[in-house]
Amino acid sequence: MNSRDLILARVRGAVAGAPDVEVPRAYRGVTGDATGGATPAGGDRLVDLLAERLRDYRAIVHVVPEAEIASVVEEALTRRKIGRLVVPHGLPSAWLEREPRDREPYDTVGDDPELSAADLDGVDGVITGCAVAIAETGTIVLDAGHGQGRRALTLLPDYHLCVVGAGQIVAGVPDAVARLSPERPLTWISGPSATSDIELNRVEGVHGPRTLEVVIAR
């Protein structure tokens, strides 16, 4: 018997005859709604809290009416001098409507066939929607659904522009988990990619985009 078998045998012996314990699964979220839905009364509060937490993470945040998404997106891409932008399948075309201006147009790049790592490293940025956003933690969750694309699209480009609808914002993590499917590939984003060494020197852009810009549509 090796060490692993010995340890497991001792565990089995210790719990032999113990009654079964029912594990609760219907977690109640911060909102008090087990379905994870945001109430209309708390909608503005959740939008403001998400924006505050995202800014704490050094993300660039815009809170605008839904009708202004396209103009804010265009301003953001112009400010960044985006030349080539990855656009995942299913992204609403209305988000990329452009006003006629004296500026160099950017090129949109699709992911069919799939872009290589070198291709993604060579673009200027990516724009996506999201599956859900968590106000309490300032976290945006992607599940590779329509308008989000596969995980690599938001990990390799240096700039990620994400559009979040007010109806996608929930209060806490249990509320988000209630909306998400465990069978989908989930990417949880809390601000730009960053890490620190033992002396707490912060370095951004190591494991993902150096810049995260978020448009929250009320």
TrEMBL record:
Boundaries of every LUD domain copy: 52-216
Top-level taxon: Bacteria
Pfam families: LUD_dom
Protein name, as recorded: Lactate utilization protein C
Native source organism of the sequence: Microtetraspora glauca
